[in-house]
């Protein structure tokens, strides 16, 4: 349990009071210094770490340990005035100024040197400090720069990828509109309104550039810090600015910042993001920031209701968070975030949500030992591909085809049915999954197709959603129809795709309903390819055409769904997928809006039961449970008030952990 603490903003004689109040809330980790560059290095080459030494030592006396942020998200004014070439340039050509944050260019060699130097100073100083748990690189990296240096590097990146400009012309099919290039230096730098091949390469370049920006600091910290100190960075809500699988290669731990910006907590929308972040490293993660009730950057910054901060915290733990940190500790007297939720007011005393955080802290302290060494396990994987997401976003064809929403449309019923879903990269190992679903795998390389085909041949159940297998890794159309390199295995293909502005009827083995937004007419090509759904009559071009194809391959199956199904029909379809793959829920028949999460490992099984609803519920657990870590013990019947949480250990009385 932790918080973001900014001691540099307050007099030193106040710190003891802060730490005592944290201690009283069971806070045992603070993140510090990620915006403190101007305090750490007030003038170029003049460092002042005395205040940070003191803050870390003082925190340790309260058993509070520290995550140190490298301060590169907010360079000091002396730096940007002396070296204006490091400033970020936006796509319209405007150069950023001091006074906000993230005003640097991610590709600037000079900025990287300066950021590495301050990171090295910190790592040399704190790399062996027993009270420093780990490091956060920068803060929420994301906005690219469109300066001249970046353009030069983009050209170099293209040259490394294609070797010859002829190869680039070939993959981007540049005979189109006389786009043919004679030299890499002629290639423009745009993030929209361009050749899809260029747009995808720009995104991949941005990803690689952010990954190397982060790695630049990771490397220097590793050179000085003890290996027990982890290195992470904090990521954002479904951020598509870069490929997070690529950036996490150099990091030890994934972390994200969860904000329920409008204060309306749609729990499945956050479940999926926890699962997404858990998939970056395929292990437990940290919630590096979350809101104490409300934020300050949404049109209406509604507060979460009483009990919901606790509901949010336990859901994160249920999905694999090993730490939850509140942003931020105390309202700053000035600066852009005066209105943001905090645990202490500007007067330095607790605001109402402090008591709720204190309760969560006490619960974490009680449950921590039991939870240690446990993680969620799932037999269902959803494949998430940044390339596919970007490719669809460049050319949605139907404005309503938001690839994240479409992903959620598959996730929700699978999560409700299986009560545990992994979200992983397309090339991740698949052998532990009974069911693998790719909601819209638009960009599909031959190697990825082979990886998926191999999974099916070994007995796996693979499901491809609409728009899958349309593009090659250069964002060019495959010269065969969808699903491109998987047409042979499926024994079928997409005859034509259609953007819908009116729903279309669909009927099949799992009932009748409607498709919205997108529908593809499918065509079986092999005699053993089975049609599982068809569009209704009077559906224009789709009239009575197949909407779902499945083919059995040994013990495995490959399925292609060509339509975005409305939620009711999608639920029935997902239920059949789970049944066919032999996947059971942890506890069947839960009341609506009650979530159950399981973490297991080290011989333990812990269940977290969360009432996301606004009315009281009773949950009957069919298995023996013993120790109640959170909530009251009512035998097998768990009573949950609105937004309430119970945490229990599975097992007979003697075997359960205390
Ligand atoms: C215009 C242009 C064509 C093509 C079509 C597409 O008519 O002249 O080159 O772009 O639009 O609808
Ligand atoms: C982000 C940033 C924090 C803070 C919060 C406010 O998560 O990382 O520094 O600005 O938003 O919600």
How would you sum up this structure, described in words?
The strands form 4 sheets. Strands 10, 11, 12, 13, 14, 15, 16, 17, 18, 19 and 20 form an 11-stranded mixed β-sheet that branches. The chain has a 9-stranded parallel β-sheet with strand order 5-4-3-2-1-9-8-7-6. The chain has a 4-stranded antiparallel β-sheet with strand order 21-22-26-24, covered by helices on one side. Strand 1, helix 1 and strand 2 (29-32) form a beta-alpha-beta unit. It is α/β, with parallel strands linked by helices and 658 residues long. The chain is built from 17 helices and 26 strands. One alpha-D-galactopyranose binds at residues 139-140, 257, 259, 289, 295, 327, 337, 340.
Describe the SSE topology.
Layout: E1 2-4, H1 12-24, E2 29-32, H2 37-40, H3 50-60, E3 65-69, H4 77-82, H5 109-126, E4 132-136, H6 148-162, H7 165-172, H8 196-222, E5 230-232, E6 234-236, H9 244-247, E7 255-258, H10 267-281, E8 285-290, H11 308-318, E9 321-326, H12 353-371, E10 380-383, H13 386-394, H14 403-418, E11 422-424, E12 435-438, H15 446-457, E13 461-464, H16 487-490, E14 492-499, E15 504-508, E16 511-524, E17 529-535, E18 546-553, E19 556-561, E20 563-565, H17 567-580, E21 594-601, E22 604-611, E23 617-620, E24 625-630, E25 637-640, E26 645-650
Helix pairs in contact: 1-3, 5-8, 8-13, 11-12, 14-17
The protein binds alpha-D-galactopyranose (2 copies).
